[in-house]
Amino acid sequence: MAEGLQVALICWSVLLIGVLRVLFRLMKEMWLKPARIRSVLWKQGIRGPPPSFIAGNVPEMQKIQSSNQKTSDANHVHHNWVPSIFPYLQRWEQLYGPVYVYATGSKQHLYVSDPKLLKELKLQNYMDLGVPRYLSKPLQPLIGDSIIRANGQDFAYQKKVIAPEFFLNKVKGMICLMEASAVTFLKTWESRVLESEEGVVDIKVDEELKTLSADIISRACFGSSYSQGNQIFAKIAILQEALSNPSLLFGFLNFSLFPTESEKKIKSLRKEVDALLLKLVRDRQKESQSGGTSEKDLLQMILQSAANNSTDRPQQYMLKTDQFILDNCRSIYFAGSETTALTASWTLMLLALHPEWQERVRVEIAEVCGDDDDQLRQCLKDMDNLSKLKTLTMVIQESLRLYGPGVILAREALAKMKLGDFTVPEGVHIWTLIPTVHRDPENWGPDANEFKPERFANGVSEACKYPQAYVPFGHGSRSCIGQTFGMVQLKIVLPLILSKFSFSLSPNYQHSPVYKMLLLPEHGIRLLVRRVQ
Ligand code: HEM
């Protein structure tokens, strides 16, 4: 009997110790650690909205968001739409200045829009500063463990393998495919305009340019197998849509014990995509082994590069070359396709609003490349001619300032680090809202919310006081690896479009930029398209 009591006592004690340990761990993660981080930041003079226990500032964020009525005036397109997407970030910036701290649950975030600190952020080493793990985890079905999600040594390895495939010398080799794809695409617009009664058609240009951009990236990735690539990318686009939930940003997701319908759909789409991609990879490997491929597309380059760099490959990729390739193919489509299409679409919307700039760009294209269609096509294949398109470059730069598709720069301090005079504890997430820094009147002047491409006449360094705060492609070691590819694509596609068509806003256009991982036009960009006289 006494023995039984003893055993029961031991069991209860073990259970109690277990429960206490779990409680202590929860307390540490939910309260002590966040409180310590906040106190470190607080002692350095960094303030912010007071968080509540467990939820942090989430209730306040939801309250500000829901009280923020979206004003959309169909007759007036205003470029200061920023308060409508993250109103709390703006409100807190007004209250606490360009550097402040806030919390979502136990996660501590440092908001930074001070240009001097942006410069410091740019200089940080990738070992100290990476992409937030909680943020990239839900995107795993899309980006896997690719370069977009990798941190530390893993990131360094992936960047070494992939980034060189997007250097200028490689992009030069892709100009012909960009041009060919755009010319084929524009034939459909030509016949629609021709067949219309009054020579004008109302087109949702963002939807259609998305198809063009996907076709270009598919040709760049898969060469002659691009039509299979297009099918795969169409499925990836659905996957991306299924994952685009803005609340991912702050990690306050709905928790469910069982997989939801949407999670099941995401899983099965991912399986389908990977099976199709793997077939392409296998076919290519077989062709290579039989010495039968002369393809120089991205898939081939990544296959070769992955093989050549196998000695310094991190352990987790030793047995997973296939996974490495699949993850990066999905990621390149995700990062490169819609971003470029959106930039082209917002640029056309701005040019539709500003016919004088539309005409200036058209005149420049004629001056550099001549009026004839064939002449233009030849001219655009020469990189030197692309760099002569100064007015077009200014227009694209201004469009990226006001409507850059990338909205958030997010980082996580992977170790305790120095940021200017501040010490940032490990685990802090650092945020910059790109459209806010692109509209800072202190940096850009009182006309910061106006479309004025002339501000870029002498380059970015002369356009504003702090050029480091112009970040449409991000900054530092994590900046966009596809910047050259994207810019070259825009400088080929836009001249081909503008030399043939003129644009004005459709009466059906409703100006409503929204955030869904990228800056999207909620109701599409509807423009009236006519043949240039
Ligand atoms: C106009 C077009 C584009 C814009 C505005 C754009 C913008 C951006 C931005 C803002 C980032 C985040 C950078 C940061 O956090 O500092 C990024 C990252 C990235 N972009 Fe782009 N991008 C464009 C086109 C492309 C293209 C064409 C590709 C590939 C073909 C590409 C591939 C990537 C990749 C792989 C990353 C992740 C880099 C990393 O995590 O280190 N992007 N891009």
UniProtKB/TrEMBL annotation:
Domain of life of the organism encoding this protein: Eukaryota
Topology with respect to the bilayer: Single-pass membrane protein
Alphabetized GO MF terms: heme binding; iron ion binding; monooxygenase activity; oxidoreductase activity, acting on paired donors, with incorporation or reduction of molecular oxygen
GO cellular component: a single term: membrane
Swiss-Prot/TrEMBL cofactor(s): heme
Sequence intervals crossing the membrane: 6-24
Main localization of the protein described in the UniProt heading: membrane
Name of the protein this chain belongs to: Cytochrome P450 714A1-like isoform X1
Organism this protein belongs to: Prunus avium
Lineage, opening ranks: Eukaryota, Viridiplantae, Streptophyta, Embryophyta, Tracheophyta
